[in-house]
Amino acid sequence: MIMNKKKKIVYLFLFVLVIVIALIIVVFKTKKQVIDEEETLKPRDLYEEFMESGVLYPRNRIEIVSLFDGIIEKICVNEGDLVKKGQVLFWLSSIERAVIVDAAMVSGESKNCNKWGNTFKATPVLAPIDGFIIHRIKEPKQTVGFRENILVMADDLIVCVNINEIDLKHIKIGSKVNMYLDAYPEIEFEGIVEHISYESLVINNIVLYMVKIKPINKLEMFRSGMSVTVMIPISSKKNALSIPIKFISEEGQKKIVIVKMGNGRKPAFCMREVKTGVSDGRFIEIVSGLNIAEKVVTFKSK
Fold it and tell me: In whole angstroms, what separates CA 146 from the centre of its chain?
C-alpha cells in the first residue's frame, strides 16, 4: 500500500511537472515574438478603382460583298491598310466577261483579248467610308457568289465593356479611364467614356450595361477582338495618411492593427481598432485610431 501511494505521488509529480514545462514553453514563445516589419503613417496619393474586362470592337463593322456572281480580278488592299471613301478596293468580273476574255487569250489573239477586255470592263467596288481593312477573306481569281464576303473594314476601334448596374454610379459620359491590353499589360493608355447603353443585358441573373470607351491614343498593336482590362476610378485622395494594407487584420467588421508601445529593448504591443478610408489595393488610409508618431508592426511567422 505504501509503495502504491509513493507511485501515485511520483506520477502526480511528473504530470504536474509536464504541465509546468509546457506552460513555460508557451509563455517563452509568446514573449519571444520577433518583429517582421514596422511602419508609421505616411502621406500618399491614393486612387481607388475597380477593374472590368472589355474587348476591342469596331465601331462600325462593314462587310464588303460581291455585287454579283463572278471572279475577283484584283484586290487593291491588304489587312491593316487605311482607305478613303470612294477608293477602289477590288475589281470584279462577271462570269460571262471572264469566259470571253479567257477564250480570247486561249486563241492567241491579243487584239481580240484587249477588245473584249475593254468592251466588257471589270466592275470596281469602292470603300463606303473612311476606315481600314480588318479582314481580307478572298484572293484574286477566286470565284464568288452574289453578296459573298470579300473584305471586312471598320472606321474605328473602341473598347466595349459590360458594367454591373451597381457600379454604374462610378461612370459618367466624358470621364477618363485607364486601360491596358491583356497581351501588353505593361503599356497603359487612356480612354474617354462616350456612351452608356440604355438597354440592359442579363447574364447569370446579373444586370449589365454596355459602356463604350474611345481610346485617346490608338496603339499600333490594336487588333479587333483583343481583350482589354479597364480600370475605373471610384475615389481618390491626395496626401492621405496611410499604411501598407498588410498591417491591417480583420476581426468581424473591425479593422485591427498591432501598435508598438515604447522603444526600449522590451517593447509592449497592443491591438487597436482603427477606422479606414480610401485604399488602392496596396496602401490604405487611416482615418482615426492611430497617431502619426506611432508604429504598427507585423510579426514573423513562428
Answer: 41
Domain spans, the chain: 51-58+157-234, 64-154
Q: Measured over all CA atoms, what is the biggest interatomic distance in the chain, rounded to whole angstroms?
A: 137
Query: What is the reported pLDDT for 300?
Result: 81
Alpha helices, H only, 60-149: 95-107, 110-119
CATH of span 64-154: 2.40.50.100
Q: Phi/psi at 7 (nearest 5 deg)?
A: -65, -45
Cell 502504491 belongs to: 4
Q: Which residues contact 259 (CB under 8 A, 6 or more apart)?
A: 269, 270, 271, 272, 290, 294, 295, 296, 297
Range in 23-27, 57-61, 129-133 with the lowest mean pLDDT = 23-27
Rounded Cα gap, residues 302 and 29, in angstroms: 9
C-alpha span between 12 and 58 (Å, rounded): 84
Q: Which of the listed CATH numbers 1.10.1060.10, 3.30.565.10, 2.40.30.170, 3.40.50.410 matches domain 51-58+157-234? A: 2.40.30.170
pLDDT band at 233 (very low <50, low <70, confident <90, very high): confident
